[in-house]
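Worked Example 4.2. Consider the chain below.
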Amino acid sequence: MTTRGIVEAGLSLQCRALHHVYVVEETEVTALDRVDLVVRPGETVALLGPSGCGKSTLLSIVAGLQRPTSGQVLVGRDDVTAMTVPELLSLRSNRVGIVVQNPGRSLLPYATPEENIAFAQRGANPSRRAELPGAEELLDELGLSALAGQRVHAMSGGEQQRVAVAVALASAPGLLLADEPTSQLDDANRDSLVELLAQANSRYGTTVLTVTHDEEVAQAHRRYVRLRDGRIERDDADIADLVGVGEDGSVVLPEHTWTSLPPGSTARVIATVDGVRLVRDEGQDGRR
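Applying the procedure from the previous section yields the following structure tokens:
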């Protein structure tokens, strides 16, 4: 049994009019100012911006670690902002994995990666726990077998952070949240970790949301959202959906449309007032 076989399909995420205010020395500070954000199942999205722009606050609220002043967060069909503390604990144990900036905060230092993974899986629902992959199997799937048997405290920062990703995936979550996971790494380890996050997405279909201030990390994701002063300044989702028409009339569709129109399928082109609409042809297999 591999993680691919039991992982929940990538979860969607919706933030609706998310607003958060905190008080510093009797002064109200707006961390998030009515943020609207939609992340599709299976997307990899980076929240990009300088320190203090609200990106880590947003991630913390999505994870249910903070309550927003107002607004709503939906992970899949679950309203995170309406959950009780036990429900939030269950959410983070089964459906949402978290990678923090300092891996020492989420790992048992004198334990091995296998022991850390086994410990993380203890919180999974009993109905799922028996189906989760063994620690050695998960490390092998993620290309981390070389770290097996080593004590976490003796590892480099980059190795610890990669183990932290494996631990976050131990319960096969549908959504992986990463808060500045590369901020303490050199370029080589940064690139290795970004590749591991991409691997989690491509191998298991896990939706990935990463907070970062690093432009190169953000651009390694399929989409990035830039925050400034608690507001979304730019969302490249619309840009990513733009397609060019070649001189021969050819069009390359965005990857997220391949579920409806997979490469090799045929579609009918229907003229509309604003342009054209593509409708998949039923073909010989009767699918739409």
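Residues 130 and 275 are 52 Å apart (CA to CA). Confidence is low (pLDDT under 50) at residues 1-7, 284-288. Compare this with Example 4.1 before moving on.
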